[in-house]
């Protein structure tokens, strides 16, 4: 079976130094000629041979982290070595100037770090140095990027505030530049160049304004009561010496005074960052004392605030270094000229009246609407109506104090699967006016509290309108951000607080967490006003009045050649947006020829189309949309040739004519029609990326689809749904999904963004890949190179783990053991373990048969064994398959069972069950030249026979026999040295001595010491592999008795030597096997390994300076990754066993003669045998004749006869009658 090598190339960037040429790894070529069929089995869905130096077993990140990837020549994904982001990457573009200068790759998203560098939302990646740098002091999330070579600019769109602009800005000459229109009122989702050489912005906005300033200003009181209040030069006068007494008061009932004749200061240090817009003061009036002038300083900036106020004449005045305060006992307001963030404020008293200075009230207000997780930070309102924001905490949370320059103190909690529902925080902000708002959730970075490895995810929901309708953010929000960030969880209508109604937002742990125990944090939420007009009101106004010339609706055309903002109504593109219902949200814009295609969450005002439409640059009216568009939101679009691929939340076209357009489909621009791609997928699609599939002899275009789905849906070509964990690839030329095709790679994860040019590739994602998709088992072919072939097994899941398993089996899932059966006309691959798989007649559990005579048809056990059973060992005797392990079934089955291979069901006669505390069989072995089955493990008895841990099943008698009167301890592995000597390894005790190896003598019926020094074996032996037929040289593996990891040892000259195995302590070795290599793959011989041998180690291996591997080779000097395995979810797989049709054997000399020598020797032996036979025949004839009285004839004749005999006959006498007919021997031959 040929192995197809696929290459998945997601994008290209013409920066050659971004991708160094990988070094080809030379792998041993095994000589499998004498082994028949060869298999490798374990718990995996894809495998790869380790071929290149930068190849590694990548795993998709459990959270939304991503990294920059490239591809190896064998098609496997590999990281560029840059530290991953802590959140999603949304967009990338190649930043190239007009003159061809390459500045790098701009990466945008919702992250706070890339490459280990703090970069909030955007970073510049330099492939030459393989480093990322932050782009200025940007703060926010980026959804869209356009690197525009024509203008030497990078246009950035998203959800952010920067300088004087909102949601759109440009990067040029190493600095941020505001656009003339100062951004948009809502987030930008897509940016592209139009067919008019303008720039198109798409998103969820309705105008070219900054975020609306509220009509009701300064309405949010800042809780000074939760601040730490300090003062200098406070009076000693009782009743006037508390500087905290003047917070949140509205009269002169309580006053704070300074010492008479002294100047001083009053300071409030907050546990959160504030953005004050108004300072309200009431002067002191005690016995003529009052403050005359002051100044306000903000920290940590250390800047003196510019303020405005109204003087006694009603005129507006400015002040900064010295601000006057009138000698009145009513409120005096000072407005902040600039809104800046601060953590503390200080009022410096500069002059006073009377004997001294003082104040009666200090209040701060802001426009920003925050609600904090820590209830006391919301505090008592300083507003006259006493309305305040609140938070309600459920569960056990603790407060965390941040750095003085940080944002705000927050709550944290540790949760596990048992108490997810018991922890939540409900925020109830104080909203003074209805309108359109964005709700932001702030999350503190995990580096500051050291919880990056344990942070979890939350879900957000709420009720923010009086009609009681709820909103739920559609996905989990991970908190693994390294630095502070915010997420926008809602954009829409919010009603003001009134009466019993209060907007509510709930943050709760997500049902699915990255680990069993996680840390969650809660800091604050913000309601950010976008528009004072609610969406429903705006739509009514739009329908009843002429649209404003400055109004937009989700799409905007910008001309970069103009320095001033033109009238938006002059653009056909902008006008098309105004034909939509209000609050349109554009997610993607594709320009193809004369047409601009727009997708998102939108509906025509006349309801003629939904979520998709096009704009013809040469026509005033919008073209007709086939089937009125799609019935759900479009999240993403990708153009390849004349086809636009679309993904989102739709389940069909609006009119429903084209079937099978489910979450993923296509629009054919040449035919102006929708096209079903298979039947789509069963869940939300978020990203579509073009990739290349290198199918051995040709390159195919592939369309990679990422999202929140679990299956590729069935269609006329595929009868059943195919599992696809959020990632699938459509192959246009084959009109089918890659997941339904034959020999193929195994891909999992997600791809979110692509940039391309030249022949190299850089793209964003979180991917795992294997060169061959094969589930549970794979076959090694005896070819001139290491070649793999897939099995027909398809693992679907692992049953529940057994609580009975001991440590040696605790982590064994998938296929654990295998063998080949080729007798009685059958050709079976037999696989056992702890798994469920698709079978011909339903689900197969724990025991599977792959029928080589019937295209690998899968059958096997269904309900014969309990779901938590695990088969650990198998052996065949005639047509009976003996299986053992942690095995339960009917009352007849306990630890061991017999399967009849001729009838393909459990045998009628079963061995009596094994018993004991957690009885487990670890190994089963057939004694050479006998009918006896040896069973080893951890059990107390077999049926009524009290044999422990090693019992003999005599199949001819169908009964158990005790191997020995001794109780040797747990036996993990057996190996026959000779027909009468059985080597056993495990955790044993004999004669009160711990031992890991021993020998069972069949003739003596007892255990005898192993013929070598075993005292330095550091723990139980789990696996044995000999490398000579006399068993005087062998390898063993096991686990250190102190639990510090695995060990490998070599027996040489009757001594065991511990190998420096280069594995870390997390490694689990499942099997070892010495194999012969071909002559062209020999290596330098060492004391441990012969030049034509290789030690193969399998398991869940973690090799130092490399990482995860599933199989490793050792040539006596070098440890080299050999195979990398992965599960369908991208997690590292394991390889449990190597198995072959015929037993691995080695010549006593350890060498194999060349074929030529074998032929010559065989010929010489044959000739010698013929010679001997002839000689023996002659001698025998001679002896027989002597016995019969035979006498030799005289050696001389008489003279007369001699003379007669010497008469010569002329030659012609022989030849003369040749042509004469008739007579014997005469004439020509006749036919």
Automatic annotation (TrEMBL):
Keywords: Membrane, Signal, Transmembrane, Transmembrane helix
Positions with biased composition (Polar residues): 532-552
Pfam families cross-referenced by the UniProt entry: Rax2, Rax2_2, Rax2_3
Transmembrane domains' residue ranges: 1157-1183
Domain Rax2-like C-terminal: 897-1146
Region span, Disordered: 532-574
GO CC terms in record: plasma membrane of growing cell tip
Record flagged with keyword Signal: yes
Superkingdom as given in the UniProt entry: Eukaryota
Boundaries of every Rax2-like second domain copy: 217-359
Domain Rax2-like third: 370-529
Cleavable signal peptide: 1-18
Protein name: Cortical protein marker for cell polarity-domain-containing protein
Organism whose genome encodes this protein: Sphaerosporella brunnea
